[in-house]
Fold Chorismate synthase.
Amino acid sequence: MSANTFGELFRVTTFGESHGPALGAVIDGCPPGIDIDEAYIQAQLDRRKPGNNRYTTPRREADQVKILSGVFEGKTTGTPIGLVIENTDQRSRDYSDIKDLFRPGHADYTYAHKYGHRDYRGGGRSSARETAMRVAAGAIAQQFLQQQGIQIRAAMTQMGGVAASQLDWQEVHNNPFFFPDASKIDDLDALIRELKKAGDSVGAKIRVEASGVPAGLGEPVFDRLDADLAKALMSINAVKAVSIGDGFAVVEQRGSEHRDEMTPEGFCSNHAGGVLGGISSGQTVTAEIALKPTSSIKLEGKTIDQFGNAQTISTHGRHDPCVGIRAVPIAEAMMALTLIDHWLRQRAQNGHVTTNVPHLK
Amino acid sequence: MSANTFGELFRVTTFGESHGPALGAVIDGCPPGIDIDEAYIQAQLDRRKPGNNRYTTPRREADQVKILSGVFEGKTTGTPIGLVIENTDQRSRDYSDIKDLFRPGHADYTYAHKYGHRDYRGGGRSSARETAMRVAAGAIAQQFLQQQGIQIRAAMTQMGGVAASQLDWQEVHNNPFFFPDASKIDDLDALIRELKKAGDSVGAKIRVEASGVPAGLGEPVFDRLDADLAKALMSINAVKAVSIGDGFAVVEQRGSEHRDEMTPEGFCSNHAGGVLGGISSGQTVTAEIALKPTSSIKLEGKTIDQFGNAQTISTHGRHDPCVGIRAVPIAEAMMALTLIDHWLRQRAQNGHVTTNVPHLK
Amino acid sequence: MSANTFGELFRVTTFGESHGPALGAVIDGCPPGIDIDEAYIQAQLDRRKPGNNRYTTPRREADQVKILSGVFEGKTTGTPIGLVIENTDQRSRDYSDIKDLFRPGHADYTYAHKYGHRDYRGGGRSSARETAMRVAAGAIAQQFLQQQGIQIRAAMTQMGGVAASQLDWQEVHNNPFFFPDASKIDDLDALIRELKKAGDSVGAKIRVEASGVPAGLGEPVFDRLDADLAKALMSINAVKAVSIGDGFAVVEQRGSEHRDEMTPEGFCSNHAGGVLGGISSGQTVTAEIALKPTSSIKLEGKTIDQFGNAQTISTHGRHDPCVGIRAVPIAEAMMALTLIDHWLRQRAQNGHVTTNVPHLK
Amino acid sequence: MSANTFGELFRVTTFGESHGPALGAVIDGCPPGIDIDEAYIQAQLDRRKPGNNRYTTPRREADQVKILSGVFEGKTTGTPIGLVIENTDQRSRDYSDIKDLFRPGHADYTYAHKYGHRDYRGGGRSSARETAMRVAAGAIAQQFLQQQGIQIRAAMTQMGGVAASQLDWQEVHNNPFFFPDASKIDDLDALIRELKKAGDSVGAKIRVEASGVPAGLGEPVFDRLDADLAKALMSINAVKAVSIGDGFAVVEQRGSEHRDEMTPEGFCSNHAGGVLGGISSGQTVTAEIALKPTSSIKLEGKTIDQFGNAQTISTHGRHDPCVGIRAVPIAEAMMALTLIDHWLRQRAQNGHVTTNVPHLK
């Protein structure tokens, strides 16, 4: 039972609360001899961290990761990699205003039922702050995958009613929304301003892709690549839906349209999103996720306190109007952690990972 | 590494291929002393089995389950429950026409890459026939859950362009489509006729719900109830998308709309689908899945053989025009297997499962 | 939580009770393409099965194993291998004499406490009959290991006071005791006669070895090869002690004696039993186990019934005077299951299994 | 695959090398609401730490544990407990003399084969330093178990030829050898002096017991309490044998002697060591382990370097003449980690842990 562990062969266990002394992770099962560039890990963390720009929360966290074990002279040793990030921005603030309140849309109420007590200091373990460790671990996985020719990338393709009309991956690096459509940046900026003014928030859609994935990754019948990816992505805070390939659109498709026909030159289409029967086909693996709007907003709402009394709540803290933005590097990390695990599983069973050939020898 | 096992505490391992002598499952971790009604298991299997009506494949399989261990005098003993269903309808047919072909939309190609060989007799392990064992195991889980006050139900809410306008759970038992809207049965019937004529197929949407779920089920941060449910449902053959609560609609929602406000009388809405921070809230857990259209159709399509040559394929076998119909009891089973596992995990950690009270004592 | 599962990558799950309709096992994670000789599996089962000779219980069980899945045209497919043995010798006997009694030395009392009920038909799940499935699964593992150059063998080296003076592996095949010393067979025969006359039983010691094991198998720090082997062997019914290499003799050894010095020609000795720091050294892996005397004996003993009343018990059934004899093939099986699992783990992490070279390149 | 994780429900994952910046552990699955006394954890660590007295290595390590998460206001929260101990005594020494040598009896050679590289700074991950984290985690488990009425204790009962003649548990606290026989302390002192003079080392035997264990803990058939305990104890550095109850003595016992007869007043003896059929009987659980003599000694020995050349080695560092002494608190910790895991598993399956009643209701 591994509530705080992800993966079977590349196992990432995270710990730490938003208001405790530190966050940490242990990676068990990383192959030895992998070149690790610490600057790359930090760069991925910096993409996720708050206070990066005016569209996200102004909380400043250094998010400086320290490697405590498992890497020697720039290479993994095969022993567990211990990672720690100290929490530096823990203001000794007064929690008395929310101490007894269950914040709607948050995990306060469900954690209280689960554990029988209340950590009133904030999100605690349920805070998205935990995802910093996923990004750090994912950055290690990505270095391994890149050395195998696998590339992962993600973008926010919709925020509220503003949807991207094109998928320009270069543009994703040019704006603070990780948005793949330069023509919509002004609309996004306007929407954020409007939300801040209204004290409200909005949801988002993210697309994540992996190219160069060899055919043959994934296990029948439960640990399918798409099933594990669905779990990985749904485990990101605020995610309410996951789709692979054409997703919900398949409901209205005909078989003659959906099945991806094959020719000696390759597949004619990719409605499947790179996964057939739970196993990668060699095509690009594509997934989309929906993130709900931030629950902590200024607009007053009804709630109860832990004694069952009716109360109202209004949050004036430092919160993103759209949590979806910062989830882009997290989605990449979870795709990476899913793929490296299945890559190693395939190698364990076959001694090699099958190559992306169009036909069997 | 448990490719063919689902669950952590209530572990279901399945085995068997569509054309082998038998299918089977082992349930390890079922609590002792649970009353088991074998007729209930068989009834659930009968809902899934092919040949039930004219809308599904006319293949006839008795799907008669035998309990080999773990049940004594009508009660579980606490030891592993072994289940077997013999394959009785294995025609010794000639496979030579498809022996070398990769069927588009099927797992032929990906399994060949994964395992380095080809089982040309048909779907083999990737066949939906495997899900019979999930339904059998799920029926045992459901008997336990019902004794805890948890009720699970599912319905097909859309097939192709025909969507239910209402959610009439009584109606689900009255038609062969498990459809919750009596006014649309004729449309569904017409659509199936049209598809059969055209030699084509269509996708479907299924809704599955669990009521009576106590607050507190689910684990932070990876083994969230919604994440495990996403994996469970995505692992069903042909599923391409999973959503919880409002699903993809949250992208365009505002925080003031989505957050479910709370009053001493309970939650004011259920946009979250019964899960907050990955943990059940006591509200009804709701999920939807999208199933792709059947890949085996009469309409000719392009493909390759295993030597890489261009070929065409047209399937004349006994296949459902909409695989989504028979997935209704499978979705219920996977919901049940997910919930029983988290129910036991909660009991392991706390010694009890928290009750559905509106506030903490 | 996998009470009835052994292994991480080569996972064996067993089910079935001694008095139920069948025993079974599922092997999940067996690599594809392995040649499987069913006659070899049956031959290993026949070595274990009761009624083989006059020294073991005269119960006759066909122990005919059926492969239900995972093997096609003589090769493993990579999908789970389902195995079943039907129980054919279930006499419909009268259990009323022992129905309420806890048999001393048996699991009756502890199972009753664990599960809160009593299966009065006999050992049930705690019966050594379950080990038939271990032998079947071990025989599949052994075929894989043999193809990798790894050879496993075991012998009973002591029964009661009769200890082998030499380790003649050829002799092991010549006598029904699996004993490696021809000069002691008459003593063993006499001891069995004496025990039968007295209505008593005696313990035994078994030695099991694996040669050709490549250096590098085993994981620090918990899943050491010797730790997993200790668990594997201790899990055999009646085993009370496990030792690796020199075992308890190391308590009185000096470091200068115990450390196995190394030369370019290899190790100078093998006090370590082929494992250093939990990882195989390339030397022969050696282990010994102690098996307690059969608990079911004719000699009357004190016990209680399930109501707490004082009772006496005397067993007149068909029982081995020394359960250790039949444990020889079981010990081989557990060694095989441990080694194949670590072999696959090493391959997963490194992409290859290091060879038995005397020094690193 | 959890090489560096112990346990199924109370999962302890450790990381860190002897010469890296820190050691750490994550405990996942500790129930919420348990009172944690940090001073008790530190006290257990102090019993294990080197430099405690003149009989163990004079290396000084503060072994100051920091709790990074999972404990709030003196109670566990139910979220993962992160623990870190910084390595403070990492002398920047010159390793050139042993850089290329494989030290006989150490894991240098086997790790090199496993990982394909050499961490020449010393034991690294294979160092017994890692066991500090086991002691810290075990101290948390022990606080839980004590609150359930379970008491664990261990003693060194033999060092070389000096064996305890009595088991005086009070005396264990009075001498630096954790020895239960005051009359032998002078002999032990003399033996250590002799070994230091000779530049040699010696083995040891440790006994560990748990009383107050309820009947019913342990799972058939692989995850037996004794099997998991065997693994736990064999995973301690230098352990070469594990026995339960009478251990290897059972080989020469008769069934009439070994089986522990039962009366309404309880068991008449405890040859079984508190475990029947792999499940606790309510009697005291007893185990013994054998630890090999320290491999790093002054006496010159033959070895090879990593190029395969013949070399000699003589260790002049700070090493214990008997590593067994410091293993006493480690054995207690591993007993505690094994028991808490099975205690929680029993509670998961039954909703309660059966009480130590002499007969079933």
User: Anything to note?
Assistant: The interface with chain B takes residues 1-5, 8-9, 11, 13-17, 20-24, 26, 28-29, 32-33, 66, 68-70, 72, 75, 77-82, 84, 114-117, 119, 124-125 of chain C (CB under 8 Å).
